[in-house]
Write a structure and sequence with these properties.
Elements lengths: L9 E5 L5 E6 L10 E3 L1 E5 L5 E5 L10 E4 L1 E5 L5 E5 L10 E4 L1 E7 L2 E9 L5 E14 L5 E6 L5 E6 L3 E3 L5 E9 L4 E9 L2 E6 L2 E7 L4 E6 L4 E3 L2 E8 L4 E8 L1 E5 L3 E7 L5 E12 L5 E6 L5 E8 L8 H11 L2 E3 L8
Antiparallel strand pairs: 1-2, 2-3, 4-5, 5-6, 7-8, 8-9, 10-11, 11-12, 12-13, 13-14, 15-16, 16-17, 18-19, 19-20, 21-22, 22-23, 24-25, 25-26, 26-27, 26-29, 27-28
């Protein structure tokens, strides 16, 4: 029996094994047991529609498929929710909740693993993927913008806080309810990317530069610390203040300028390249005021030993002594 052949609007549900249920027509039924489990599996198509591929019946040559239209979101427990709209015979406002967990983060996809079980008791895990871009919202929370037809988008928000690990990667941790064990477990997902500093009071974590997947975070002015650069950041609609530290070490490159060398996983290193104006302080250290590639001030001053210049140190110090200040451009390097 196919639910699409029924008259009136159709109400759907999802059972604990992530199977679609036909739960009657019209308003929600109060009759116990008035349900029909539809054997099949969920998929998400290229336009981010949720589809349910019904198990092929004996009299059908082609597999049957239901298309479900609505708005995507994440629940408090980080389950994937589709709130149905008025399309076709759907009951608008009907919420379908797929229970599972976030997994395998990619630059342009949100992946969600769900466990399913068929009528024979056979279990398996399936991966559902929404296409789109990752961005930060005005509260510095991590969000995913799922792209749909006609330029429409749905925003899925990771409402918890995020942190950085020792390899300068963004890590998101959340708690997940385990109903059978009546306890909560902590899940973590890792975003692979690299950092950029191009403006005052903003740092960016780039996942895919060409496709716009990036987190632009609003922060305080940066200040140098022993481990690298430190910022204050507020995360969440009810702000929680944290310290954000970009770990790395400073190097000078005659050809490129001042480099901030940041370690990532598997020995990978990425360099942030800065221009700067430089002067000698009262202790004869080099005081650099950092600039971006366009020569704009970043509001950060760092003090380094002249040893960072290695064999060019004496020449640079003579230039500073005669001019009081020397400037250089990011990507162009030291010229005096």
């Amino acid at each position: 029996m196919m639910p699409v052949s029924r008259k009136g609007k159709i109400r759907y549900e999802i059972d604990p094994h992530n199977r679609l249920i036909f739960a009657g027509t019209g308003k929600e039924s109060k009759v116990p047991g008035y349900r029909e489990i539809l054997e099949g599996r969920f998929k998400i198509d290229k336009n981010n529609y949720l589809t349910y591929h019904l198990k092929k019946s004996s009299g059908s040559k082609e597999p049957q498929q239901l298309k479900l239209s609505g708005n995507w979101s994440l629940s408090r427990d980080h389950n994937l929710v589709l709130t149905l709209d008025k399309w076709n015979k759907q009951y608008a406002g009907n919420k379908l909740t797929l229970k599972g967990e976030l997994t395998d983060i990619k630059a342009n996809a949100l992946s969600f693993a769900i466990a399913t079980r068929d009528s024979r008791g056979k279990s398996r895990v399936r991966i559902l993927k929404l296409g789109g871009t990752w961005q930060a919202d005005r509260y510095n929370r991590l969000t995913f913008k799922a792209t749909k037809e006609k330029g429409l988008t749905d925003i899925l928000t990771l409402k918890g806080g995020w942190e950085m690990d020792k390899r300068n990667r963004v890590i998101y941790a959340y708690t997940k309810s385990q109903l059978r064990k009546k306890e909560k477990v902590t899940k973590t997902i890792t975003f692979q990317g690299f950092w950029e500093i191009t403006e005052q009071r903003r740092v960016s974590y780039i996942l895919n530069k060409g496709r716009g997947s990036r987190f632009d975070f609003k922060v305080s002015l940066g200040k140098p610390v022993k481990r690298g650069l430190e910022y204050e950041i507020s995360i969440g609609a009810v702000p929680e203040k944290k310290t954000l530290t970009l770990s790395g070490k400073w190097k000078a490159n005659k050809r490129l300028g001042l480099l901030f060398e940041m370690p990532y996983e598997k020995g990978k290193v990425e360099n942030l390249i800065f221009g700067a104006s430089c002067r000698l302080d009262e202790d004869h250290n080099l005081a650099f005021k950092l600039k971006n590639k366009a020569g704009k001030d970043l509001g950060i001053e760092i003090k380094l030993s002249g040893k960072i210049l290695k064999d060019q140190g004496e020449v640079f110090l003579r230039a500073l002594t005669s001019r009081k200040e020397v400037s250089f451009t990011a990507g162009v390097g030291f010229r005096w």
